[in-house]
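Form 7-S
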Amino acid sequence: MIRSVSVKNIALIDKLEFELGEKLNILSGETGAGKSLIIDALNFVLGERADRSLIRYGTDQASVEAVFSDYLTPQVSAYLDDMGIEQEEVLILRRKMSADGKNECRINGRLTTLSVLKGLTELLVDIHGQHEHQSLAKQANHEALLDDIGGAELASARDKVKELCLKYRALKAEYARYGDESERARRLDVLRFQVEEIERAAIGEGEEEDLLEKRRRIRNTEKILSALSSAMNVLDGYDGASVTGNIKAAEGSLKTIESYDAAIPPLCERLDAAKTEIADITETVGEIMRELDFDAKSADSIEERLELIRSVLRKYGGSYQAVQSFYQKASAEASELENASERTEKLEREISEVGARLQKAADTLGELRRAAAEKFERDMTRELGDLGMSGTTFKVDIASDHTPDSVGETGGDRVEFLISPNVGEPLKPLAKIISGGEMSRFMLALKNIVAGIDRIGTMVFDEIDTGISGRISAVVAEKMCNISRTRQVIAITHMPSLAAMADSHFLIAKSVEDGKTLTHLTLLEDDTEEVARLIGASDYSAHAVPHAQEMKKWAEEYKNSLAH
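Output:
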């Protein structure tokens, strides 16, 4: 439930903070006092769309914060887990909008998107107004509501359908991977060709890079051979004395004088080492020349090998690693298909068996839904009669297709609430009811039946008394009170009987301060005078106040009767 609300710079509201009671909270006030602004503020923090006109004139941003307590239902808990939001003792929702149109939404201080905020608040609060689209008016929610009414037996049947449906779909998906026999044969031929092509290619890791390097050398063979030949001429003496011969000659000259100078023998040793190094260099250059001559002769085979490698890479992933991955998967699939006949025969038997069980479970679930629907229809007819709609026909329409391929996780039924508010009129979907008064009473009757079932902890009614007066107004007040015993109710009303039933009564008023019009909200300790005003006594006459007192006494007695 909503524990408290803080509003800042919303239209005529400067700054407003108020705490709500856990049962029936009534908001009333003069026409034009700003009652709708409270709903606007709640809609804003609950994630409804809003534009910059909501920001109070002269300010650059508006914000609303709502604090919830006792809010954790299985649905809310699951949603928070899915969104990765930590569950805490209280839930704090905050939304801010700037004059430039930017929105900021936070859940327990964590920045989030408007859609995530909206998804959460739909599980927490149901706002019902003349033109609001409500959760219970949505056909998509009707099946779940009917299932809740059906109780534990129906829930168990639905769980069984879900279990079998998931198993059936898994079996069908596996079978579909195999295809029919001719498809498997075609697929196996393709896989075998691919596997054999990769095996024949026998590409080595890094082989393409090595071949490209060889090709680069081959394409520069003339330049490389020229340089190597020139170096060999110098080193080996093709055009005169060799480097080795010159070093040997120098060493011989120095040896003739080594006994005369101690520095000469080390020089002779170094020349001898250089002679050995030059001989090794000469041999290596020769080897390179011979290998280069061999590479030049194999140029065609290198080009052919590169063409093959690139063709295989292009077909199977573009890299050595991708080709290996493709090969492993293709080999595994080929092996699976080679043994597919035995597996598909077994799958066909399992699909048939599970499909029959699924259809039977869906039939059982459908029967339980129809039984729940009959009781629901009787209860709604009674409630609507109490609310002055005795000529109304209410119908739970259930269209079924329980063939295995048509059954989903919640069964094979499509549930929709239909209503005909007047005798002789055709049944229409609930969402298409036009009359505000009829919609208000229908929703109130529905809420009175399902109070505590749909698990939404807070209900907001925005002036649902449209088109309601006289004796029916007292019935509406009683039914609203009934709902508030199992959840929090916030209601804006002009109806004195409903105001008299309040557990917490807030007066909305408007004042002018420093040349600005502002809206205020006050919790009334004694709301007798406000009830009298709603009765119609502008001067709180001697007749209106006793009438209000009598009405409050009646309301108190009714509330006490519910406690026993």
